[in-house]
Amino acid sequence: MVQSGRPAPLERSSRRMGSPPVVGARRRPYPDPMPEAGSTAPLRDATLRSPTTVDAVVDMLDAEGYAILPGLLDPHDAIAIRGELARLLDGVPTGRNSFEGFHTRRLYALFGKTRAVDDLALHPLVLDAVEAVLGSCLLSAPTGIEIGPGEQAQVLHRDEGIYPVAYPHPELVVNVMWTFDEFTEANGATRIVPRSHRNAMAQAGRDTPTIAATMPAGSALVYLGSIWHGGGANTTEQARLGVAMEYVAAWLRPQETQLLVVPPHVARGLPVRLQELLGYSIYPPFVGYVDGRHPRSVLER
Ligand SMILES: O=C(O)CCC(=O)C(=O)O
Questions:
Q1: Containing structural domain, residue 214
Q2: Considering the domain boundaries, does residue 3 fall inside one?
Q3: pLDDT, tens digit, for every residue of 241-256?
Q4: What local confidence, expressed as pLDDT, does residue 24 receive?
Q5: Number of domains within the chain
């Protein structure tokens, strides 16, 4: 343990932490640019049907910036999770600004409110793909997002845009939108600007062509934090429910402070890997220590 000065490297991670990200390292030249305003070039279908592999997901993220994994959840599980999210959303107000969405309800602090989404965060295919891109990662902003009828399209943005890290840089953020309704063009499926991660200087605006990430309930849309995207407009009479499970490279600060969302007395009972993703972990050699010790020691008190 720490004797004096800086703490010694801290062991006891269930995984090798700090492994280098691979997407930047293996990015190949790719002929198709991001679609510009007025472009009529056909867009590639980024859907990967089951069974698929981590490599296939990572290759699709590298090429297009996103991948759609339809029907990843057992339909009964998806219905049960949907029911729990609906219960939690009862009484939640709509957004405070156009980014949150004046007709959209958001469930923040998800892991402090329910255990229904623990398995989503730990889904082996998805988490392995996320880690292949980011290396060690943390949960950053897991949020239930219910886009209600009448919502306008959200402004296109990059999730990594909140971090003042100069380009070029490795991928900082990967987001996973889990769907609990069918996502359609009409009900506000997430809009994506394919391949926009390949042009650091790209700016997307109202005229930039987007695709709608359409998929059935129980699917996952995995997308890089460097891809331009936004929630779609909902022109239907029904709300569209998803959970955005956002991960960030473990050397950056998560958007929402998960260590406060999930205090030690709650974290103590969770799977070790989930504890680590919530911040009870070390980025080598010692980023994240508590009183000179591994943060998990707090759970053992
Ligand atoms: O709800 C969606 O489809 C995407 C929302 C989003 O990108 C955001 O709120 O940052």
A1: 42-300
A2: no
A3: 999 999 999 999 999 9
A4: 47
A5: 1
The CATH number linked to 193 is 2.60.120.620
- CA 49–ligand 1 middle distance (angstroms): 23
| pLDDT score recorded for residue 229 | 98
Q: Is the CB of 231 under 6 A from ligand 1?
A: yes
Q: CA distances (Å), 216 to each of 105, 164, 175, in order? A: 21, 35, 18
- Residue 213 lies inside a defined structural domain of this protein: yes
267 ligand 1 Cβ < 6 A:
no
Q: Tell me the C-alpha distance between 73 and 76, whole Å.
A: 8
Is residue 293 situated within a structural domain? yes
Which stretches of 77-233 are assigned E, i.e. beta strand?
A: 104-107, 137-139, 143-147, 173-179, 191-192, 211-212, 220-224, 229-230
pLDDT for 121-161, tens place per residue? 999 999 999 999 999 999 999 999 999 999 999 999 999 99
Distance CA 291, CA 7 (A): 9
Strand, helix or coil at 278? Answer: helix
Q: Are 137 and 174 in contact (CB under 8 A)?
A: yes
Domain-located, residue 51: yes
Any atom of ligand 1 within 6 Å of the Cβ of 229: yes
